[in-house]
Write a structure and sequence with these properties.
The protein is of the alpha/beta class and 567 residues long. Strands 1, 20, 21, 22, 23, 25, 26 and 27 form an 8-stranded mixed β-sheet that branches. Strands 2, 7, 8, 9, 12, 13, 14 and 15 form an 8-stranded mixed β-sheet that branches. Strands 11-10-24 form a 3-stranded mixed β-sheet, with no helix packed on it. Helix 1 runs antiparallel to helix 2 and helix 13 packs across helix 15 (546-554). This is Molybdenum cofactor sulfurase-like. InterPro entries: Aminotrans_V_dom, PyrdxlP-dep_Trfase, PyrdxlP-dep_Trfase_major.
Length: 567
């Protein structure tokens, strides 16, 4: 299994945060423009963003020689010309330098997972800031460990923390506060991961009353496979949304028919669960929130998959407007160093009564370590109220610096930064061509787009137009200290003219059709050097001998991954 990268890139330089602030082309220069300032509409801003990207990022230029690419500083100058508001995010560079300095010391660029880190790297260890010498006295299980347990989900939710430890309670309150989820409206349980959360819902939801499961994913997911498997086993009719080729947009007419089919549901009898991911964590496609309202109006329980969201995307979600019945998200410990963590399953309290009692695995306990560097003692204070009933208040010196840093930045800064970086990367990748008619890179899903998410799915092709196996590219990227992800796009509706694009692979006892792809995902700490480094690596495939030469150096065997058949 390909592991998320960890480890120690050259120290950050003046590329990162050493510029004065200035607004984006076409946007107003003030939060409160005067009456004489023309109002910039949302549609205009999005159109101007795309036009500026195309006209500024290497305009009328293509690169066929990997040695002809502009330098890091030249490219960054063009980048700032296209996105001057990027310099408003200098605070992120300072946080990265001060609290995640391992990213500056390492030779790795982490582009293979998205999520939310609880802690900063500086909390992990003692170090000398003047020399950036890293201490070797790290705990084997920093901050906390995860202990699996067998339990009844409905009972746990109804008990709502009655058996939580002080540490688990403190963690829950911080997470719910970070996500702006009301403890009055939702109960939460810790799960081993996203897949476990999906399975717990499938095992407890009353599917045996012939209810349905409808999911909206353009890629293969272990968690989605699991909820499909368990739900179908328990009597559910499983359906999936389809996506149109080549933009991978939701086939709206088909999905609307599936959502609205049959009689409208009621509070007493629902159609089933509508599982909605908000956006694709593989292609970066964002989906209209309107689908949640349509589903609710037509009698569905709605389950939100928030695992692929950016760290502050929940601020723009409008939880109080949509009030999903279930929501799943995940957290890890430290970005770029320790990707272990846990999942969180939130269930609306008014939905809990319809669940069935089911005892199984998937929930976990969080056990704090005794490492004095990472955690301090939690204190519990017992008081008595006027009716002589004991109440408890918790105070903790535990600091969740990862969450604190994101909170200090806010949605605008983190969103603008990832938007600039991912769109530059998409535009720059398209400038790599073997010839005027032969592209090196194929991107799946949205291209340059103001609203796209911080992930991109792509493949590389040689001069003959033959696809280079994602497995090979991923291994060679590892050898160049870049971590990329892999995915499999599916549920795609191909028109006849695109039939030759499909791949077929064996999955269990059935053939699946889709496309295997590479993925690059940007966390909130990503900077321009990270995306430039990936661009430089991809450009090396313009050399027809690169794969053979680099495969030999890295010990990668091209014949190692030939288990798929092209349709």
């Amino acid at each position: 299994m390909h592991q998320p990268c960890r480890g120690d890139s050259p120290p950050p330089n003046c590329l990162h945060g050493c510029f004065s602030s200035s607004p984006f082309h076409g946007a107003t220069t003030s939060e409160h423009p005067s009456d004489s300032t023309p109002t910039v509409t949302s549609a205009t801003l999005r159109r101007d963003f795309a036009q500026t990207t195309v006209s500024t990022i290497f305009p009328d230029t293509q690169f066929a020689d990997p040695n002809s690419l502009p330098s890091l500083h030249e490219s960054f100058s063009d980048f700032i010309q296209a996105y001057p508001n990027y310099t408003d995010t200098y605070k992120i560079d300072r946080i990265r330098s001060d609290h995640y300095f391992h990213l500056g010391l390492s030779h790795y660029t982490c582009l293979d997972y998205i999520g939310i880190g609880l802690y900063s790297y500086s909390q992990l260890l003692n170090y000398d800031p003047s020399t950036y010498q890293i201490s070797s006295s790290l705990s084997e299980s920093p901050f906390f460990s995860v202990s699996p347990k067998i339990g009844n989900l409905k009972e746990k939710l109804l008990n709502d923390g009655g058996q939580e430890t002080e540490f688990e309670y403190s963690m829950k309150r911080r997470i719910m506060g970070f996500l702006k989820i009301s403890e009055e409206d939702y109960s939460m349980v810790y799960t081993a991961n996203r897949t476990s959360a999906f399975r717990l819902v499938a095992e407890s939801y009353p599917f045996n009353s012939k209810r349905k499961l409808l999911t909206v994913y353009d890629y293969e997911s272990e968690a989605v496979n699991e909820i499909n498997r368990v739900s179908e086993k328990r009597g559910a009719k499983v359906a999936v949304a389809e996506f149109s080729w080549p933009r991978l947009k939701i086939c709206s007419s088909k999905l609307r028919k599936m959502v609205t089919a049959g009689k409208n549901g009621s509070k007493k009898k629902k159609k089933g669960i509508f599982v909605f991911p908000l956006h694709s964590r593989v292609t970066g496609s964002r989906y209209p929130y309107l689908w949640m309202s349509v589903a609710q109006e037509n009698g569905w329980h709605v389950m939100i998959d928030a695992c692929g969201l950016g760290p502050k995307d929940m601020d723009s979600f409008g939880l109080s407007i949509y009030n999903p019945d279930f929501m799943v998200c995940s957290f890890y410990k430290v970005f770029g160093e320790n990707p272990s963590g846990f999942g969180c399953l939130f269930v609306k309290k008014t939905t809990i009564p319809i669940l069935e009692s089911s005892t199984g695995s998937g929930m976990v306990n969080l056990v704090p370590t005794n490492n004095p560097i990472s955690l301090h003692a939690l204190e519990i204070n017992r008081t008595e109220d006027t009716e002589s009933e004991e109440t408890y208040s918790f105070s903790s010196s535990v600091e969740y610096k990862g969450l604190d840093h994101v909170d200090s930045l806010g949605l605008v800064a983190t969103g603008n930064r990832s938007r600039c970086l991912i769109n530059w990367l998409v535009s720059a990748l398209y400038k790599l061509k073997h010839s005027t008619t032969s592209r090196l890179v194929k991107i799946y899903g949205p291209k340059v787009n103001f609203n796209r998410g911080p992930a991109v799915a792509f493949n590389l092709f040689n001069q003959k137009g033959e696809k280079i196996e994602p497995f090979i590219v991923q291994k060679l990227a590892d050898c160049s200290n870049i971590s990329l992800g892999k995915g499999f796009l599916k549920n795609i509706m191909f028109e006849e003219e695109y039939e030759g694009v499909k791949e077929k692979r064996r999955n269990r006892d059935a053939d699946e059709q889709g496309i295997s792809v590479l993925t690059a995902a940007l966390g909130f700490l990503a900077n321009f050097e990270d995306v430039y480094k990936l661009w430089i690596f991809v450009a090396r495939f313009l050399d027809s001998e690169f794969v053979d030469k680099e495969s030999g150096r890295c010990g990668v065997h091209v014949y190692e991954h030939k288990n798929r058949e092209i349709v």
